[in-house]
Amino acid sequence: MTRGAVRQDERALAPDLARGVMLLLIVMSNTAFHLWGSRHGASGWHPVDGSRLDRAIQFLMIVTLDLRTYPLFAFLLAYGMVQLYERQLAAFAQPSTVDRRRAVALLRRRSLWLIVFGFVHAALFLAGDILGHYGFATLFLGWLLIRRGNRTLYVALGIATLLWLLPMVDVVRAFGTGDLGGSGPFTEPTVDLYAAGETDWVIAALRRLQTWTWVAGVGTFAWIAMPQLVIAFLAARHRVLENPGDHLRLLRWTAVLGIAIGWAGGLPLALAHVGAIDVPSDAVAESGVLSVLAEVTGVPCGLGYVAAFGLLAHCMSARKRLPAVAALGKRSLSGYLVHSLLFAPVLAAWGLGLGEHLGSAGMALFAVGVWLVTVVAAAAADRRGLPGPAEWLLRRLVYGRR
């Protein structure tokens, strides 16, 4: 027998606050893929044209958002896995082996349904869906690590850290020799893989699913080895975000060092993108030296963001009324899906096609507006005690009628 979903009195402010702000970071980082009318460069991420304001927005996003929000999302997802698992076991005075297996089965069921949600999301709106991606990742992690002891987790963390740092060997060699170029071919611009410029919805859906299959399937094996997932397991067992006041020194150091490393690692790619430094084109390609540097340093940056949200939650813990952003964090799945619902039909060529006429600055403004709509809607739902529709459906599928 398993217990039902989390109750309101069991929620902690820090994870919800982080999820709410994280949705803004994610929707901002996804904006470039909807600018299908702009000219994209070797990486296929941001346009290489636009006004000075557009270029400034691109610079800031490369330094602070790109490849930095997904490690944050991954951490929170893995952290929530441990919370769910331990809440299930807390229902028993002395959990048996059968109880632990049932808790793992519940996690497995949740991961499988996330994959289904991700498939539908990609088919309808967004090729870069991350629900299926993390559904596969948590399915594997739930089987491999959720019941292991801390010693096993530290060993796994060591292995994951080595795998994470392995690409830095080529980066260090390239900077040491001064040869930032390479002989590999450019990757296809990501905006084409997202099918935002396709006028036929059916063809666009098929292309989105093709991209989603690669990202959610093959791409998962690259992400399950990322250290932030194992760190999230350890942090959740020590209840770092539930009790940030007990871990202030850890949170402060993590926030300062993580964000500093992350922003410094994204700076060369941002400078190259706006033309402030001259580098070979393939240095900024998806597998180029500067892109790899930005991706690797995105992990400590994501952890730094988590720590910063923990510190912010500690400062706000005395408030009786929670911020509206935390209400969105409680409904993060719904908020994430609503972003695509408001983005794709308005911006894609098969919809109203507004993405052809916007630049990076206009798209960023549109993204903030969409996020604010979800914040207001979540706050209204919170005042009425209503869950997000996607959360309600997922809980019904995972827990049944309880």
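the 2nd protein, sequnce then structure:
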Amino acid sequence: MIGPLPATALVGVGGAFGAVARHVVGLRVAGRRSVVTVNALGSLALGAVLAAPIGSAATLFVATGACGAFTTFSSFAVEAVSAATDGETDVAVGFAAANLAAALVAFLAGSTLVGAVA
């Protein structure tokens, strides 16, 4: 059992890693594609972590901290609303659908790959 302070520290340090990784992806992948990229990669990692028997400390660090800070629902919402507000309803709907599909497929892939190994 992990105490509340160490658990919070694990989430915080994992979140710092995730936030920096999110920033790096944003520098390398432009626009809406960066949002889909981080949400898919984060979902892949989350699926893998939750399928692996790694223990509660590692789960807090990676799943809650790193994946939580790496993935971005707020940027997803901004981009979808921005496209819709600009009159690009088809782009907004396509972006939302692609984001959801990529995240779900990636999560299932991560959990299946690790589940098959573990």
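The chain has one domain: 4-117. The two ends are 23 Å apart (CA to CA).
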